[in-house]
Specification:
two-stranded antiparallel sheet; 11% strand; 207 residues; two-stranded antiparallel ribbon; elongated
């Protein structure tokens, strides 16, 4: 490893992504572990979001009440439709970002421009808010379906469509886990961004 100053070919907008602490620069193995953790989180978010969308999208149950045939589908609840769309967006985004991380690991680059870091950080934040907001709306609707709302005379329906509610609950649980993964990714991308402005930001390293 060799270190250089600001004038050694490193522009203010293109700085090394390295760890700094009280003891100085951390080894490259820590950088690799952080990259592996990011790939794992993005793959987890993608898989969980796909599972959530699949469980909700395929959820349906038919019942017959006094010779009247009724079919419950996720499209009957706008909150579940929103969650399916949000899960699909998170799955596609996580897949693309996971591929980017894998390419970065294979290439072994250690430099990241600040504009790119800001773009990744902003997109991660947006996706985290989208999935968390959709989960919150779906949870509220699920509670009403489970327990009803006496004040508004909204009856509970999950005792009539138990299988539908059980599968929908599994989909919402997967979406919650995907949201937790996106929160972890957002924290990691925030760290990757703001360490560019920390101690030793003008240094560079080479293998």
């Amino acid at each position: 490893m060799s270190q250089g100053g600001v004038g050694d070919g490193v522009s203010p907008g293109n700085v090394p992504v390295c760890y700094y602490g009280a003891g100085g620069r951390v080894s490259a193995s820590m950088e690799r572990r952080m990259r592996a953790a990011e790939v794992a989180l993005r793959c987890a978010a993608c898989g969980l979001a796909v599972l959530a969308a699949a469980l909700l999208g395929a959820d349906s149950q038919s019942r017959t009440f006094f010779s009247i045939h009724k079919v419950a589908r996720y499209t009957d609840m706008q909150s579940l439709v929103i969650l399916v769309v949000a899960s699909g967006m998170v799955a596609c985004y996580s897949l693309l970002q996971g591929a980017r991380c894998l390419v970065s690991i294979v290439r072994g680059g250690i430099l990241l421009s600040r504009p790119l870091a800001w773009a990744i950080f902003s997109c991660d934040q947006v996706m985290a808010y989208i999935i968390i907001g959709a989960v919150a709306v779906a949870l509220e609707a699920a509670l009403i379906g489970k327990y009803g709302q006496v004040e508004f005379q909204w009856m509970k329906t999950c005792h009539l469509y138990q299988r539908f509610c059980t599968q929908a609950g599994g989909g919402v649980a997967c979406a919650i886990a995907a949201g937790a993964s996106m929160v972890g990714i957002s924290l990691l991308s925030a760290f990757n961004l703001f360490r560019l402005y920390g101690h030793g930001k003008g240094g560079s390293s080479s293998k």
